[in-house]
Structures are given as structure tokens and as C-alpha cells.
């Protein structure tokens, strides 16, 4: 995991994340920014939550769990290693800790707790406040490598991308809402409408909901979206073999051959079709066919009498039309 910029500046869903039985399930760590609401349970490796975070389900951490002050969990908290519980945290179920428990004052645990290791009653320093204050100080001194080492040590040396929820976010079965960009990895299965500043979706994902962003939206190969894809000011790019079971409405549209859109396509600006062709004696390459359209609805494939063809090497990454 790298700390070259603010790690809470976007919603990041790592590869292989799924939503199962009202739980977010990932093999990676989970970091939740302050004042966020998670209307789901969480099953992950390490779980770290900032101040005033609300969970409407159980938390199952195979390693450590750190809940800062005034967090609320409407369920059980099951921890495979050590737990750090800040003051005035409320847990509606049981707290079960396989290792040591570091717990603050005025913590409410409705159904009791059990810890196999040492139990220390004090007020732990808020995890995210201390961690990011220290890392910010290192970055200001230009010690980026040391900041990376510290962050890797906190998360037991794991280099894989954690699931990151920015502050003031809302995640639930009906919608995932953030005011930052959102990035979804490969092979994910998510439930709920995704609302963000911009959205990047990886390959072979399945999203049971719509996508809406103020800026651009990109969908990689093999991804299926069970809903509409809408931007207010940005562009939409749909890679080959992606499938949208709804409408597209955007400022500019770039559609790769082999993509399927079951609904209507509306683009206020340019609409570009990227066609795959095989030339004689050459390897397979993509060529780009541009068509400038009006705001009228376009169903099915896009055709234009005035087409311009040129090589395209983007392979699914968004390249704004000229």
C-alpha cells in the first residue's frame, strides 16, 4: 500500500470484493473515514474506523479491529487478534477478542465481552488521527519511503490495496454515496447505486445498481451494470464485452465494439465508436470511428455518414475525444 497522497481522498474497492448477505466481504483491510455510515456488516482482515462511524451490521476482523471514539456498531464485533476500542463506543451485540483488548472509558457493550489476552482500560489515541498526523508530518519532510514503510507495518506488511471509505460516506444495500472519486477493482460483485464525483470500474465486475457521477465514468471489459450510467458533465467509456442493462446519458460517449447497451444512449457532445479490425498481414488492432451527434436518443449501434478512422491504443482506458 502506497501513501503518496491522501488515502481517504477516494472510495477504493479492491479486487474480489463482494456484498454477501448484507455484508461487505474482502480479503484485504478496511479503512473507514470519520462520520461515515456503513449500513452493512463488514468481513475483512484488519478493520479501522475513524471517529463517529456507524455500522448497521456485524464486524468480523480476522486480524485487528480499531474503532475510534463515538463509533456505533449495531451487531457483534468478532476479532481474530487484538482490538482497540475508543471511548464512548457503543456495541449492540457481543465483543469477542482472540487477543488483547485495549478499551476506553464509557464504552457500552450490550451483550458483554470476552478477551483471551490482556485487557487494558484507558483511552486509546484515535487511530486515524494519530496515524495520518504522523504520516503527513513525514510527507512534509519529503520522507515518502519512510511513510510507506510505516503504513505497511501498521497493516502487517500487506502490500495489497485496502478497501478505503472516505469521510462522510454512506454505504448500503440501496446506494453507495461519496463526494470523492470512486474506483472499483476487478472481479467485484456489488449491490446498490453508486454515486461519486467520478467512477472507474475494473474488469469482470457485476454491479446491481446504477452509476452516476458528475465527471467521467469508465467501464472495463466484461463488466455488467444492472442499471443506468449517467454523468452530468463528464464522458462515459464502455470497453468491449461490457454490458449495460440500462440507459447511458453523458456529455461525451466512447463505445468499444462488442459492448452491449440495452437501453438508449444520449450524448450531448461527441459519440465515438471504437471498432476492432484485422488488417491483412497485421495483428489485430482497434480503430476509432468518430461521429458527432446531437442530444437526440440513439438506440443500438452508432452510425455516421461522416466517419474518421484512426488507430486507437487505449485498450479500454478513457481518452477524451479531441
TrEMBL record:
Reading the lineage from the top rank, the first entry is Archaea
Q: Where is the composition biased (Acidic residues)?
A: 296-309
State the residue spans of region: Disordered. Answer: 276-322
Supply the PANTHER family for this chain.
Answer: HYPOTHETICAL CYTOSOLIC PROTEIN (PTHR35024), POLYMER-FORMING CYTOSKELETAL PROTEIN (PTHR35024:SF4)
Q: What protein name is recorded for this chain?
A: Acyltransferase
Q: Which species is listed as the source? A: Halococcus hamelinensis 100A6
Amino acid at each position: 500500500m502506497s501513501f503518496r497522497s491522501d488515502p481517504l481522498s477516494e472510495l477504493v474497492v479492491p479486487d474480489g470484493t463482494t456484498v454477501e448477505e448484507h455484508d461487505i466481504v474482502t480479503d484485504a483491510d478496511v479503512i473507514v473515514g470519520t462520520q461515515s455510515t456503513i449500513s452493512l456488516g463488514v468481513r475483512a482482515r484488519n478493520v479501522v474506523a475513524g471517529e463517529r462511524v456507524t455500522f448497521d451490521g456485524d464486524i468480523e476482523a480476522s486480524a485487528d479491529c480499531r474503532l475510534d471514539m463515538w463509533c456505533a456498531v449495531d451487531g457483534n464485533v468478532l476479532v481474530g487478534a487484538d482490538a482497540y476500542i475508543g471511548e464512548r463506543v457503543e456495541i449492540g451485540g457481543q465483543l469477542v477478542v482472540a487477543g488483547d483488548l485495549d478499551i476506553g472509558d464509557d464504552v457500552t457493550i450490550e451483550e458483554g465481552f470476552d478477551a483471551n489476552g490482556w485487557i487494558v482500560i484507558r483511552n486509546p489515541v484515535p487511530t486515524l488521527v494519530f496515524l495520518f498526523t504522523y504520516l503527513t508530518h513525514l510527507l512534509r519532510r519529503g520522507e515518502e519511503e519512510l511513510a510507506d514503510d510505516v503504513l505497511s507495518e501498521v497493516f502487517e506488511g500487506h502490500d495489497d490495496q485496502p478497501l478505503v471509505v472516505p469521510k462522510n460516506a454512506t454505504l448500503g444495500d440501496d446506494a453507495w454515496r461519496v463526494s470523492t472519486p470512486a474506483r472499483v477493482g476487478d472481479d467485484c460483485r456489488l449491490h446498490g447505486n453508486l454515486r461519486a464525483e467520478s467512477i472507474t470500474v475494473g474488469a469482470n465486475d457485476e454491479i446491481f445498481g446504477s452509476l452516476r457521477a458528475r465527471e467521467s465514468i469508465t467501464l472495463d471489459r466484461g463488466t455488467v451494470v444492472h442499471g443506468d450510467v449517467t454523468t452530468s458533465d463528464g464522458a462515459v467509456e464502455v470497453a468491449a464485452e461490457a454490458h449495460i442493462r440500462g440507459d447511458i446519458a453523458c456529455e461525451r460517449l466512447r463505445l468499444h465494439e462488442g459492448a452491449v447497451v440495452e437501453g438508449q444512449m444520449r450524448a450531448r457532445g461527441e459519440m465515438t465508436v471504437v471498432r476492432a479490425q484485422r488488417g491483412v498481414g497485421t495483428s489485430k488492432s482497434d480503430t476509432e470511428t468518430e461521429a458527432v451527434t446531437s442530444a437526440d436518443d440513439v438506440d443500438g449501434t452508432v452510425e455516421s455518414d461522416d466517419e474518421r478512422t484512426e488507430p486507437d491504443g487505449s485498450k479500454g482506458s478513457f481518452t477524451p475525444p479531441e
